[in-house]
Amino acid sequence: MSGNLLLLAAVLWPMAAAFISYFIGRFRKTARNRFTVGATVSEFLILLILMLTGDSSFSLPKICGMSLELQMDGFRALYGCIAGFMWMMTTLFSGEYFGHYRNRNRYYLFLLMTLGATVGVFLSADLFTTFIFFEIMSFTSYVWVLHDEKPAALRAAETYLAVAVIGGMVMLMGLFLLYNAAGTLRMEELLSATRTAWETDRKTLYLAGALMVFGFGAKAGMFPLHIWLPKAHPVAPAPASALLSGILTKSGIFGILAVTCNIFLHDPTWGMAILLLGTVTMFGGALLAVFSIDFKRTLACSSMSQIGFILVGVGMQCLLGELNSLAVRGTVLHMVNHSLIKLDLFMVAGVIYMNLHQLDLNRIRGFGRKKPLLMACFLMGALGIGGIPLWNGYISKTLLHESIVEYAELFENLAEAEEMGIRLMGSYGLMKGIEWVFLISGGMTVAYMLKLFICVFLESNSDEEVQKKYDNKKEYWNIFSRIAICGSAAVLPVMGMLPGLTMNKMADMAQSFMHLEHAHEVHYFTWTNLKGGLISIGIGVALYFGVIRTLLMKKTAANKDGKVLREYVDRWPAWLDLENGVYRPLIQVWIPRILGAVCGFLDKYIIHIPLKVFMSVTGSVAAVLDKYIIELPMKVFNSVTAAAVRGMDQMADGIILLARKTTHRQILTMEKEDIRDEAAVKTGRFLDKVTRKTTHVASLVELEERVSRTDSIIRSGLSFGLLMAVLGLIVILLYILFV
Amino acid sequence: MIDYLLVIPVLLPLAAGGIMLLSPAKNRKLFLWSAETVVVINSILVWALLLTGTGRENGVVLLHLSPELKVILRPDGTGSVFAGLVAFLWPLAMLYAFEYMEHDIRQRSFFAFYVMTYGVTLGIALSGSLLSLYLFYEMLTLVTFPLVLHYRDADSRKAARKYLYYSIGGAAFGFLGLVFVLSVGGSSDFVQGGVPALREAVESRDLLLLIYVLAFAGFGVKAALFPVQKWLPSASVAPTPVTALLHAVAVVKAGAFAIIRLTYFSFGPDMLRGTWAQYTVGGLALFTIAYGSTMACKEIHFKKRLAYSTIANLSYVLMGCCMMSEAGLFAALSHLVIHAIMKICAFFCAGAVMHKADRHHVYELNGLGRRMPVTFACFTIAGLSLTGMPLFAGFISKWNLAMAALTEGTVFGIIAVCVLLYSALMTGIYMMTVVVRAYFPGRGFDYNTLKEIRDPTWRMLLPIGLFAALLILLGVWSGPLMNFLTAVAKGVL
Q: For residue B237, what is the DSSP state?
């Protein structure tokens, strides 16, 4: 454990505070709210102190199998502070917003835990640490998305979690590969480590990079992993949406930057890949936003589009090589701008939602009339994000635009490119095309912000009663919300109007992270620079009146005054949804079905069939053995022994028979004619008299006959002889013994 | 002479179990607490013996089957890891079982066999030769059989029969391995890096490899290796203390442990590395990982889902083992230890839900998170850990496994990492769906339907909470354990 402990505190304090607030919240609600505000303010102060006291670092070895490395310098300090600032503002706003919500304790618990994790991501000095905090952040912020527990929220949360888990796993795979190839994950050492691996193992590095960008890009909302973004942001509570959109997406960008600038520094191939992905994201997001008729969904899609702008900047950094000063500064500043603008805009959306509990443009139409302060807050954000000169978004968009122009010009000036050692990729036409996509996307930004602004703050509701109710609503936000929102809004024009004092300083601070030492001076308000902005604005206004007010609105029945009403319609085809059309069927139906079928099949047959075959084979073998090998000899043996036994059995009888026939043959003698039955007759008669029956004589005679016959058989039989012999033997024995 | 103390941990539970079966004691409380006392004393003894290194040099010969064949106990590093783990978990699992089994009618036989299994498992862990390991391994089947059969109904009879057939059949293949080790190697005593004579037997290499694969699959039966894994999900009909401790740790880990012994201490990794045998068994292990995780997602029975997860996770251990390197052994051991803790924690939570709420299927778990806060908090921790989330112990062992696979530098290693990540994703799905259901039943869920349900008492919560705390502790600060395991894998200890 070494280094500045305050850094560790910046990460752990919010996490500890999360549990404290949960504990307090079980007893006192207001105390809990005050405590959370205090916690976020103190966190912001800690970060601010860290930023002002200069670079510092902290490392805690042997944590989670590797070591925990935190660092506070340039870009990290800047984004740490922005995170702290945003949390402070949203927490301030949360008090009122969540007034009637259930499960507020849970919300605050995860709000503060996510703060700690997010700060951890931004302060991390090696990718392993980034990953750990990134995963914690994904899981804790998941609870925000499903906070409402409505079906839409549950579904969006499911998507969010799925994207987070898949992204995390893929990123981990990338980290494995990178660690294996480079031997380190420390950002400082990565550049030199990968330079040595670059020549031998470039494919692995590209693969590792792509996997990591997949993971980070999923969180950033990069196409084609943006699917969670337009769904999760609208269903989350507004303060949470502000954070999701403003800062959590930036943590993804932070990761992409860390990978890009440390592994693929000035690599045009990599840059081109990111640039193209960024372009698609930028245009797609803007297109979705133009079509959307839900206030928060528009903002969410806009976030996606702005992430695309930032990614274009990241791509240009690589393409431009040593000349990337504009791209670097544009990227950083657009990140900062987008964070701050979305903070403001989502909180305005929160104000609308907490009063009306809906966000459909046709319903909330006219809510903002006669509410000048709210309108001003929204306008600051809208002008900022629209890239209107004198507001902050203009500065960063100009820088990004100029970097594209600069690269396109290199194609016409090949000598200079060669001199600077830049390997050109793509072509002049491609870069011009991207430039125009950039300008049109900028225009679309203007168009959809115009749509929101006109709808909510200028038009009146189609139902006059409702409008009256809206107009009479004066107490629509309390003092804390007002401070939070106005505070966030006020920053935007200040930054835009004084870029030299504010934005240049930020860019100076952050650029070392992207290995940029010197930046050349840019005058933001020259004609060439203004031209790009003005083209965008022109396109935007044309789109608004040409497309949104015509194609994306339809007439409804006239009201009682006969005035024709028009309402916003969602003309985006429902089937054109990457999540429901491709990802969900793939993950929920096809992959489980196929794999499940394979596993089930193997389960059933791999064991079953061989077992059956085995059983039948062994069964029949055993049956054959049984029948022929065991049974037959058995039978033979049985019959032989049976015959033998029977023979033995009859031997004795045979001998006896033989003896009777020969030696012991009975001699037939004449029967003596004597009166044999005298006693029987006498007793019989006597008994007859006594019992008055006549049967006794016959039966007694018969008995006597039988006795005498038996007696004669015994006497003449062998057995008797034997008996006598035995008796004789016994007598002899007794004689010998006793005499 | 003091070495003979080693015999006590093995024989004491066996004797105690025998006495428990026969004793006429009527007092349930006395009966149980004396059983617990025996187990605790035994565990303390095991730890004392391991820490003092008793018998590490020479070991104790229990009996001679013939002058060459001796049953010997000798705790080396790897054995100590398993013995220490078992000794740590058993008293806690007993404590948990007290409450879980409180209304059961066959407690006497249950606890008697439960205690006996302890002794046999320690026998496996402390065995100093493949022969003695094999003997205890067969005994393990026999003493755990009544536990699977416990409820005596049709399902458990069927499961018990299946368990018996599979185990005995598998052990027969293991026996084949033992015979070859003895006949070719001359001795079955464990030597780190393999029996020397076996390594030098060059001419019969292919035959030996075949025997290795067969023996691997044979011992793999207990480790639920595909395609002989079917008994494990069926066996989850047994009481939860059995499924948790035996079918997530003792029995199945005995299989994995036997394979580690077979690979690193009998045949030797050098002989196996880079051969078709390595890729065959490695392929089987990888397939089992994918299979187990996928089936777990499909399964809706709570405990069976965890059983499938066990199938996958055991093959993580086998996969580490199949790397045939020090790093592989290290990773296998670390997952052996960490998975034991996280899976027993998850099973105990599932058991608590079954015991208190009588819910057996995943779709019945809606909203229970609020009613059983401690149980589900611990389950969440176990689930995140199983998924491999950083800050939890599971991440460490998965990181080790992935690193071991990648340092191989082969295609096999890269496929292994991909499978690992696929499995992690599936784990996320099958564990998190439970958590999400329990905590976020959706708006308008009526909590009154769950009014009666509460967290269990301290006897269940203490083990669960302890395991959960340990998972976080190891996740954040695993240095000493990992250093120890590295030393074990290097053969220093």
A: G
Which residues of chain B have a CB within 8 Å of the CB of A154? 440, 442
**Count of Cβ atoms closer than 10 Å to residue A360 Cβ:** 15
What is the C-alpha to C-alpha distance for residues B73 and B129, in angstroms, rounded to an integer? 8
DSSP A556-571: E---TT-PPEEEE---
A51, A192: one domain: yes
With an 8 Å Cβ cutoff, are A131 and B390 in contact? yes
DSSP codes joined into one string, B373-418 = HHHHHHHHHHHHHHHT-TTSHHHHHHHHHHHHHHHH-SHHHHHHHH
Contacts of A606 in chain B (CB under 8 A): 226-227
Domain boundary, last residue among A499, A524, A556: A556
Residue A58 belongs to a domain: yes
Confidence of residue A561 (pLDDT cuts 50, 70, 90): low
Distance from CA of A22 to the nearest CA of B (A): 14
Query: Cα A472 to the chain's mean position, in Å?
Result: 45
Query: What residues of chain B have any CB closer than 8 angstroms to a CB in chain A?
Result: 226-228, 230, 290-291, 294-295, 297-298, 384, 387-391, 395-396, 399-400, 402-403, 406-407, 417-418, 421, 424-425, 428-429, 432, 436, 440-443, 475-479, 482
Q: Which of A360, A229, A236, A380 is nearest to A293 (CA)?
A: A360
Q: Looking at beta carbons, which residues of chain B come within 8 Å of A164?
A: none
Interchain contact A411–B (C-beta under 8 A): no
Q: How many percent of chain B have pLDDT more than 70?
A: 99
Nearest chain A Cα distance for residue B205, angstroms: 28
Chain A residue at shortest CA distance from B424: A169
Residues B313, B224: contact at Cβ < 8 Å?
Answer: no
Q: Is residue A326 included in any domain, yes or no? A: yes
ipTM of the complex: 0.80
* Min Cα separation B406/chain A (Å): 7
Q: Quote the pLDDT of residue A418.
A: 76
In the listed set A556, A581, A600, which residue is the last one of a domain according to the structure?
A556
A62 and B CB contact within 8 Å: yes
State how many domains chain A has: 2
- What is the Cα–Cα distance from B380 to B345, expressed in whole angstroms? 10
CA distances from B24 to A582, B30, B391 (A): 67, 12, 50
* Residues in chain B within 8 Å Cβ distance of A236: none
Where is pLDDT greater, at B399 or A668? B399
Range of the domain at A709: 684-738
Question: For chain A, percent helix, then strand, then coil, each to nearest 5?
Answer: 80, 5, 20
Q: What residues make up the domain containing B325?
A: 273-493
Least Cα separation, residue B409 to chain A (angstroms): 9
Looking at the fold, whether B245 and B288 belong to one and the same domain comes out as no
Choose the closest CB to A172 out of B421, B440, B479.
B421
Q: Count how many domains chain B has.
A: 2
Nearest to B489 by CA among B337, B326, B331: B326
The Cα of A603 is separated from the nearest Cα of chain B by a number of Å equal to: 8
Same domain, B70 and B177: yes
CA angle A520, A522, A525 (to 5 degrees): 175
Q: Which of B327, B312, B488 is nearest to B404 (CA)?
A: B327
Q: Which of B395, B406, B407 sits opposite A64 (nearest CB)?
A: B395
- Grouping H, G, I as helix, E, B as strand and the rest as coil, residue A101 is coil
Please tell me whether residues A548 and A693 are part of one structural domain. Answer: no
Q: How far apart are CA A704 and CA A298, in angstroms?
A: 130
Residues in A closer than 8 angstroms to B479, CB to CB, are: 62
Give residue A670's pLDDT band: very low, low, confident or very high (50, 70, 90).
low
The pLDDT tens digits for B308-358 are: 999 999 999 999 999 888 889 999 999 999 999 999 999 989 988 888 888
**Which amino acid, B184?**
V
